[in-house]
Design goal:
Blueprint (H helix, E strand, L loop, with lengths): L2 E8 L3 H19 L1 E8 L2 H4 L9 E5 L17 H12 L4 E5 L15 H14 L1
Parallel strand pairs: 1-2, 1-3, 3-4
C-alpha cells in the first residue's frame, strides 16, 4: 500500500530546496513506496499563507532573509521561529522540522538529515496518528 504525505517547505532559496526534494521524493518512492507531495513557500506573500495549509510536515528555514520579507520587530534570524509559533496555534498535530544554513545560537551545531532520518520522521507521524 502506498503512503502519501503532504509537506510544506518555507525557504527563501526555493531553487536549492526544489533540487533536494526531487531527489528525496524519488528515493522515498522507489525504496519505500511513499508518495510525497510538497509545496515550497518562498516569497513573502506565499509565506504569509502558511496558516492556510494543513499538512503532515512543515519544514522551515529558521533564518529567512531578503528584502521581500517584513520582519517588523522580529530579528531576521528569529523570523522562522515566530512564523512557526503562529502556525502551531492552529495546527497542533503537524510535525515541524527546523533547519538553517546559519543558526545563530550560543552553541552552534548542525544536524544533517539523511533519507533514512526522513523516513523515520515520516514513520513517527504514522505512529502518532
Amino acid at each position: 500500500m502506498q503512503k502519501e504525505f503532504e509537506i510544506v517547505v518555507v525557504d527563501d532559496n526555493p531553487d536549492t530546496v526544489e533540487v533536494v526534494f526531487q531527489a528525496v521524493k524519488s528515493v522515498l518512492k522507489l525504496d519505500y513506496n511513499y508518495n510525497i507531495n510538497y509545496k515550497i513557500l518562498s516569497k513573502r506573500k506565499e509565506v504569509e499563507t502558511l496558516n492556510d495549509y494543513v499538512c503532515d510536515i512543515v519544514m522551515s528555514d529558521c533564518a529567512l532573509s531578503g528584502e521581500d520579507y517584513d520582519f517588523q520587530d522580529t530579528p531576521e534570524a528569529r523570523y522562522g521561529f515566530e512564523l512557526i509559533k503562529k502556525y502551531r496555534k492552529r495546527n497542533k498535530r503537524t510535525k515541524i522540522i527546523f533547519y538553517s544554513g546559519s543558526f545563530d545560537f550560543e552553541y552552534e551545531g548542525s544536524f544533517d538529515l539523511s533519507v533514512a532520518d526522513f523516513v523515520h520522521i515520516i514513520n513517527d507521524i504514522l505512529c502518532g496518528i
